User: Fold this.
Amino acid sequence: MDKIKEVLKLLESEKNTIQDLKSLEEMKVRYMGKKGLISELQAGIKEASDKKAYGMELNTLRNSFLEFYEEKKQAFENSLLEEKLKSEAIDITLPGRKIKKGSLHPMTLITEQFEDLFVSMGYQVYEGPEIESDENCFQKLNIPKGHPARDAQDTFYLKDEVENYLLRSQTSTAQVRAMEENKEKGPLRIVCPGKVYRRDEDATHSHQFRQIEGLVIDENVSMADLKGTLELFCKKVLGEKTKVRFRPSFFPFTEPSVEVDVSCFKCNGKGCNLCKQTGWIEVLGAGMVHPHVLEMCGYDSKKYQGFAFGTGLDRFAMFKYNIPDIRTIYGNDIRFIKEFDRRDV
Assistant:
């Protein structure tokens, strides 16, 4: 009984020394652990002369400790919770933080817009390889070796494959492949988007850019069909008030060939620095597919006719999104891309 009173007295003296949850848990081990003071007293009940009185005193000691322990533990946990709430408090009057999210590149946006437009008109999207043979890139487009038109499309030839394989200079190579793959040699209606390469070394051109070209082959196709298609295309992309005009031109793979201009969307044809005071902006080239090209790709030029057109996607992206410098498109600056995350495109 004296030992119980000594432990109780010791407990009362130690209560004021507990300052945190760690010291409280250490105290619990000292008193309630396997070799703790209260546990040892419980083992001594066998030797007590008055087991009932001994047990009552021991229960009083144990209850006193447990009551103190639970009260202190709750107080410490509440204190820690309050400190955490204060340190992690959120000011609900502050403006919310914008969630970071990705955005599509303007070239991706303009490509998808063009593809959606032509698919709605019954075209299929056809993508060819960027490495092409000289035959597909030039010869089957009516540009034989030594032809002066090659100078304007000088590109990059593969090492050890000079005059055999090169990086394509135009997406017309995809049209050649599509015509050759069409074993039935029947009607064809495709658009071919993709990257092309040319050895342009002046300040106004890039060695790499993106094109999209269209090809239609069928019976009784005429320039009227080409003009109607391009007028619809330009109005859908640049606005319903856009005017379109054709100018005679020359391309080896089309005959007749035309350059296509649109009325300046900045000044509405009045003349400004964008259109160089002419009121018109050149946007693409087009024409009726040359009969020789049809024949080289296996078509009967007496039965089928076709028209083709092509334009630079970079140029349309600059027009549509008011991008002043083409180098910005390929600069890999994340700040430029972020401009398109919420823009109505």
